[in-house]
Amino acid sequence: MSKSSSLNKVFADLPVTIFEAMSQAARDNNAINLGQGFPDDPGPEDIRRAAAEASLNGYNQYPSMMGLPELRQAIATHYGHWHGLKLDPMSEVMVTSGGTEALTSAILAVVQPGDEVVCFQPVYDSYLPIIRQAGGIPRLVRLEPPHWRLNEDMLKSVFNSKTKAVLFNNPLNPSAVVYPREDLELLARYCQEFDVIAICDEVWEHVTFDEHKHIPLITIPGMRERTIKVGSAGKIFSLTGWKIGFVCAAPPLLRVAAKVHQFLTFTTAPNLQAAVAYGLGKSDDYFLSMRKDLTRSRDRLTKGLESLGFPVLKSQGTYFLTVDLSPLGLNESDTEFCWRIVRDYKVAAIPVSAFYEQDPVTSVVRFCFAKKDQTLDTALERLSDAVRGRKR
């Protein structure tokens, strides 16, 4: 038996992610990549300049494992301002190397072998491998288009005495839903009834549109002491490569998450932390303007796709919108559609079925609209007969 046959099965057996596969296909086909969720502009200049200044004239050795004190204070102040959430920056806030590391720290802090963890499909691809590495057992709930909402029956089917945690992504990538208070109160009721810890992936919290407002689950009555809230400066400031994440939780939860973080990345680039602290202190106008610009891009791509015959599901938040192909009568699944358009039309998208492990929805495709107007317009030109050419 070779050594490789005894490698960790949780990771050794994982397929290539759909993001990697479609991005490679975009490169191979010289296609416009509307698959992965990153903007094609460099991000706010003043925040980037703050990072450069901090690198040149600031401290460049190991910062505090928990994060620069000024960033932790900025995070607490920011959430106090936007959500009325009162946090002690020294005992309830931690900085990590991105949102994924924050989620990993939270999962490994909470989940032990045999624990059940409720996850909602479509599910972000990092959740399940980390739950399984911790010895946990995912209990999957199937959300469906067009509304992707929670209901009593689905929660009743998975919550039980073995449930240790729930992973909840709001706003939800990839379906672009911002959950209303009604759904949050329903989930909170089950968390309290079954004594469950909520790990909340809220990295898209500032990227909401129209009248939809993000409500952190930690602010729902009864959830303050049993919620781990995860945020991301990369999503807030469209600086996805910086990988600055936030973990906010009551001290008993944060202490254990910090011990996990200590042995994952330990700490994060101090110049980037200093710049994020500056950014979080910007006026409301910055955040509202960011939403306005993204709303305009969302509407541009939505109207363009609809004019080509694509049934677009309204995007309430995130960098994404989704198209439900089922009314079109196409003789192909979402995955087949995505491979066809990247090959034949030079546009890359993501099939939402890739976010399901069981009983997938196979008719929905995700596009990223956080791109320049010219990028979106060129993509629309290329897709001009993608529907007409494939009707049954």
From TrEMBL:
Domain Aminotransferase class I/classII large per the UniProt entry, residue ranges: 31-383
InterPro entries: Aminotransferase_I/II_large (IPR004839), Kynurenine-oxoglutarate_AT (IPR051326), PyrdxlP-dep_Trfase (IPR015424), PyrdxlP-dep_Trfase_major (IPR015421), PyrdxlP-dep_Trfase_small (IPR015422)
Listed name of the protein: Aminotransferase
CC terms in the record's Gene Ontology section: cytoplasm
Pfam family, one: Aminotran_1_2
Entries under PANTHER family matching the protein: FI04487P
Cofactors (names): pyridoxal 5'-phosphate
GO molecular function, one term: kynurenine-oxoglutarate transaminase activity
Similarity field: Belongs to the class-I pyridoxal-phosphate-dependent aminotransferase family.
Keywords: Aminotransferase, Pyridoxal phosphate, Transferase
CDD domains, per database record: AAT_like
Domain of life: Bacteria
